[in-house]
Amino acid sequence: MRSVKVSDVMWNHIEPIRCGTPLTRVVKTLLENHVSGLPVVDNQRRVLGFVSEQDCIHALLVSSYHCEGDPIVDDVMFREPVTITAEMAVVDLAQNLGAGKPKVYPVVDHGKLIGIVTRTAILAEFARIGCGVELPKYASADDD
């Protein structure tokens, strides 16, 4: 387990949120990708912040109440996100998970975003390598 690195479980296919993105577009991206939050980056992919579902809910609730229009991600993002490296051991990351901790971690290399790791990806890896978790059986067309 110690040999499994963040690079083995990270997602690198999700496009990060760019500064200036309208919050309604952020919400659409979160929903399309089934993630609870995403890093916010500049044009060089440097991580400037992080935006979560909760940030979006609160901001959209307030803006609709005050009829303020569509806020942008810069107005609501958390500006000091925790980032990790691709070489970090998954077990070390897992030991730091808990209440009040991020559910999604931006993965950086030389200060630039290269992917994200979710709690779901860590859990799936534990199940895959047999850490006492049995994967659910999904019915396939062949089972009928």
TrEMBL record:
<dbReference type="InterPro" id="IPR000644">
    <property type="entry name" value="CBS_dom"/>
</dbReference>
<dbReference type="InterPro" id="IPR051257">
    <property type="entry name" value="Diverse_CBS-Domain"/>
</dbReference>
<protein>
    <submittedName>
        <fullName>CBS domain-containing protein</fullName>
    </submittedName>
</protein>
<dbReference type="InterPro" id="IPR044729">
    <property type="entry name" value="CBS_bac"/>
</dbReference>
<feature type="domain" description="CBS">
    <location>
        <begin position="10"/>
        <end position="68"/>
    </location>
</feature>
<dbReference type="Pfam" id="PF00571">
    <property type="entry name" value="CBS"/>
</dbReference>
<feature type="domain" description="CBS">
    <location>
        <begin position="77"/>
        <end position="135"/>
    </location>
</feature>
<keyword id="KW-0129">CBS domain</keyword>
<dbReference type="InterPro" id="IPR046342">
    <property type="entry name" value="CBS_dom_sf"/>
</dbReference>
